[in-house]
Specification:
By secondary structure, the protein is of the alpha/beta class. The chain is built from ten helices and twelve strands. It binds NADPH dihydro-nicotinamide-adenine-dinucleotide phosphate (NDP).
Length: 288
């Protein structure tokens, strides 16, 4: 455990509920490894308590917090500034408190892209299929468009896919941005022509079991990259199907670690110890 004294810099995770969060283990292991006097704590705050909590964090001298459900969108109205990316995505997952100002950022897109670039994958010129149209899909679609990939969004609730496409239309430029329902027919219509298929639905996430957005009856295209945002379990039914077809696969853990790493670097101005963060996360997840 790092030493906590009168100079310890405070950070935390604002969400509700957050009983099972692994973020404190991940960040505190990183601070400890670099001998930095920082401490990261869970901050369970119910929705009605958010304005008071934000004022309290400033008063207590917190330097930053990560933000998770259900506050990622509602907290925006309590900020002084918001980054261009967070504004386009419409959600915040990190707030810095500096010089009395509260500035919101969104690191989802950075983490999503970094997990590919570190493997030498550039999405420029790609045709990508995004399954799902929730909060994480917004960051994924925005990031893919900015990085030069055309995107098709398919979602169980078609209206949500359409509205996501329309709200990000201005970022598409000459790229194609389409939407539709998440049906076997619609997936099959684009499956053979896409380079990247991203699962942004919560299907397959613990405790939702073995579910997958990929239809059993449809062969997975072996030349496409399969990217699952779900990080628990690390091997999902979606990734197993893709692997079985010989496709390259990327799990959600790397995205999560890279988001944490970029936040760590902003807070401490030190390179994040990625291996320490990954093992802290992995060891906690696999311990009884
Ligand atoms: P949201 O609740 O905002 O969106 C959930 C999405 O999943 C919606 O598109 C929803 O469709 C779809 N969905 C849920 N259940 C089903 C189902 N049974 N059949 C078809 N579609 C379904 O969640 P988020 O976007 O915030 O998160 C999605 C996943 O991504 C979670 O597992 C989360 O843990 C993970 N994630 C991972 C990150 C990482 O760093 N690796 C970062 C952020 C998220 P509909 O609109 O029809 O309800």
């Amino acid at each position: 455990m790092p030493t906590i004294d009168g100079r310890t810099q405070l950070l935390g995770l604002l969400g509700y509920p957050i009983d099972h969060t692994l973020s404190p283990a991940m960040y505190n292991a990183a601070f400890d490894a670099l001998n930095l006097n920082y401490c990261y704590v869970p901050l369970p705050v119910a929705p009605e308590g958010l304005p008071a909590a934000m004022a309290g964090l400033v008063a207590l001298g917190f330097i930053a917090v990560n933000v998770t459900l259900p506050h990622k969108q509602t907290v925006v109205s309590l900020l002084d500034e918001i980054s261009q990316e967070a504004e386009a995505i419409g959600a915040v997952n990190m707030i810095e408190f500096k010089n009395g100002r509260r500035t919101g950022h969104n690191m989802d897109g950075f983490g999503f892209l970094k997990a590919m670039t570190e493997r030498g994958i550039s999405v420029e010129g790609f045709r990508s299929l995004v399954l799902g149209a929730g909060g994480s899909a917004r960051a994924v679609v925005y990031t893919l468009l900015r990085a030069g990939s055309s995107v098709t969004i398919l979602n169980r609730t078609e209206e949500r896919a359409r509205s996501l496409a329309e709200s990000l239309r201005a970022h598409a430029g000459v790229l194609t941005l389409r939407s539709g329902p998440l049906t076997t027919e619609h997936i099959a219509a684009v499956a053979s022509e896409v380079d990247l298929i991203v699962n942004t639905t919560s299907m397959g996430m613990t405790p939702h079991g073995e579910s997958s957005p990929w239809p059993d009856a449809l062969p997975f295209p072996s030349t496409a990259i399969a990217y699952d945002l779900v990080y628990a379990p690390s091997e999902t039914a979606f990734l197993r199907t893709a692997e079985g077809a010989g496709a390259c696969t990327i799990g959600g853990l790397q995205m999560l670690i890279h988001q944490g790493a970029i936040a760590f670097e902003k807070w401490t101005s030190q390179p994040a110890p990625l291996d320490v963060m990954s093992s802290a996360f992995f060891n906690r997840r696999t311990s009884p």
